[in-house]
Every structure is written in C-alpha cells, then in structure tokens.
Amino acid sequence: MTNLDPLSSAFERMIDLAFSTYSSGKNGLVFWRGIKENYSTEPIESAHWLSPVPKKSEEGEWNPDGSANPLHFYNQLWRIPAEKSLSERSVMQIALNIGQGLASGSVNKRWSLRDFVLFDQLSTGEF
What we know:
Elements: H1 4-23, H2 28-35, E1 47-49, H3 70-83, H4 88-104, H5 113-116, E2 117-119
Antiparallel strand pairs: 1-2
Helix pairs in contact: 1-4, 3-4
C-alpha cells in the first residue's frame, strides 16, 4: 500500500470483518492468525501514532480458558500504539480490536485510521 486511501479502506473493511467474526461467535484470534501475514511489518516512516484511547485496567482481560474478555479489545487500542511500531500489520490489528470491541460493547466509538495515525504527507496521499 503506497497511499492513505487503500490503507484507510482496508482499515474500515477490517473493522467490519472483525465485528462480523465476533458477532457470529468465531474466535477472533484464530481469524487474525489466519490473515496477519498479509500485512507488512515494515515501519511506516512518514507517520506516527496518536493515542486517543486512555488506559484502563489490564486485570480481567483474559478468561481462564485463555480467551479474551471484551476489556482486552479496548485495551489493545492504547497498548498497540504504546508498544508496537507503526506498520500495516499494527494498523490492521487496531481495526481488528475496534471491530471486536464494537461487537462486544467494550468499544463505543467507531474510530477511524486518522484517529490513530498522523501521516506527514497527507496532502500528496503518499506515505
């Protein structure tokens, strides 16, 4: 992906896919593991993370069987920008967690790519 429009479109599609996956009772982690290799881990150099989501408690994110509680999806929205480099994969992981969070009720806003990423070259569409 070489400009903002395809990345933004992929971000929106990922939110919808994750919402559908969670709503249908499918395992989001299994879904993610099956597609994450499609996204580059190369850092996006001409952009940087924004952090619009405040941290909540990490206690209670996981069920005894290892599955995620809805709080996990919310927490990923502050954790990923704080801990991961900015890449296509980490951006798609944000979208995944927005979709699952919306479906579970732990996220109450459909965040956009621009809420999380500030691109230095928006005027040209290149990044």
